[in-house]
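Suppose you are handed a protein chain with no further information: no name, no annotation, nothing but its sequence. What can you learn? This example shows the usual starting point.
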Amino acid sequence: MYIFSFIKNFIHNLKPQTLLVLGFLLVILLGAVLLTFEFASKTSSLNFIDALFMAASATCVTGLAVVDIGTTLSFTGQIIILLLIQIGGLGVMTFSTFLLLLIRGRFGIASRELIQETLTYFDNIEIASLLKTVFSFAFVTEFIGAVLLSIRFAFDMPFADALYSGIFHSISAFCNAGFSIYSDSLMKYQSDVFVNFVFIGLIILGGIGFIVAFEVKNQFKKKLSWHNFSLHSKIVLSFTPILIIAGFFFIFFLEFNHSMKELDFGTKILASLFQSVTSRTAGFNTVDISNISISSIVIISMLMFIGASSASCGGGIKTSTFVVVLSYIKARINSSNNVNLFYSSIPQNIVVKSILIFSFSFFTIVLFSFLLAVVELQGGSLYEEGTIYIQLVFETVSAFGTVGLSTGITPSLSDIGKLLVSVLMFIGRLGPITIALVMGTKENIEIKYAEDKIIVG
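A reasonable first move is to predict its three-dimensional structure. Written in structure tokens, the prediction is:
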């Protein structure tokens, strides 16, 4: 009893951010241990480094893989990956608090703080109603996606295999994980309009954010009106299509006579649209990423860096963060102290947080790109190793944005490289700010010295 009391008091005294980090760590470690057992593999069991990488990738809904899931992992191993994806996609703390709600019918202040930390929303929201919306929205969407995909896959394989494939890919797509039991991801369905649009729908719904889904549900109860949406939802619903369309046009024109030159016009449009959607956080691909142009690598990297929306299954710095930073830059260029969007002013603390997230994320990518270069490159010239370095940078952005797209370099990483990418996926899923708050001091001491000027720019 004393041990349980000690554990309870210890957990109670932890900050919500610390609990969030520890929750994800425990799930990853548990998943890694399970994946090392013989029952998780078809042949020889995974070593711990590879198992840890796969568990981190699944829990952080990234999709990078050092082994082929379909050919290496057994049915049990694939189910472990799928469970990690589902838990990681909806959030460890979201799951635990929802279970508490089901068991007790209520929860306390600590649980409320955890959900607010996980879903990053307002203080006055109905947490119980939000949780019910999150789970009902997720499971209903995944169920519909699984049914649609299973029906389509049944034309290509036995029904039992089609059903399993439909369920696996529906959960993976909605959670924006990007894991596929097919060795070539979705390349064989490159020109299949039905499969492409089911995946596109699942990815967008999983990446748009539970807060937006919650507001849309409440809007339908009354009368759907644009003016009744929060500023957050307005930003997400407005700029998500803009990013998708912009990505589509760039990929379409840059790859028209390059990686897609052998495709017919309709397939080029479909592949460009799919890759624009999945590049923001999902990680599936219908074009060979290793064959795309450097220009497209840059565009896809930018989409991966921006990512999905806040309080969603996706990663990246988030759409709203990117929009706030752009709006701040615009305001400062116009010599305005107010950051305005949709006839609303963004609070100063939100602007500062957005700039911090953007800066922390950028420097995190720079740091890990450097570390991977030190570990993976042999010290050769730019001419000899320049291509590999570009692949490493792309891998870094993909891991941080929890996307999962790769040029194919992932399995060949050294053990240290795999550990670095695992840490990066973890940071990308929780956010650099959350990690910094956990590692930072509790005291907030402000010291102001006499002002002095410097020359900048």
